[in-house]
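Re: the request from the purification team.
They wanted to know what the chain is likely to look like in 3D before they choose a buffer screen. I agreed to run a prediction and write the result into the notebook, where they can find it.
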Amino acid sequence: RQPCAASAIRACMIETPRSIARHMGTPVTFRKGLVDEIRAHAHGRTEEICGLLLGESDRVTGALPCRNVAADPFHAFEIDPAQLIAALRAERGGGPQVVGCYHSHPC
């Protein structure tokens, strides 16, 4: 597979009852430049990249690139469970809130 000049980025909200109620009908905004940072992470990669979106409520202020541990990382993504657990522990300790995830679709 050839790397895509501009991989498509998809953000998905983590589906919990709290987040569904909070985000229904509410637009989510990204910190200026954040989408460009995520695209830079994906640039030139032939496998899917993935990571966690950090912020609060309806505002995404940061991204944490994660290792893709999927059995077939060229066609699927699975965030490294150890990285997800570490991020959730950090959140409980007062760190940034995990509000979603992102992944690419290489060409």
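For the purification team: The helical segments are 17-23, 34-42, 81-92.
Please add any questions underneath this entry.
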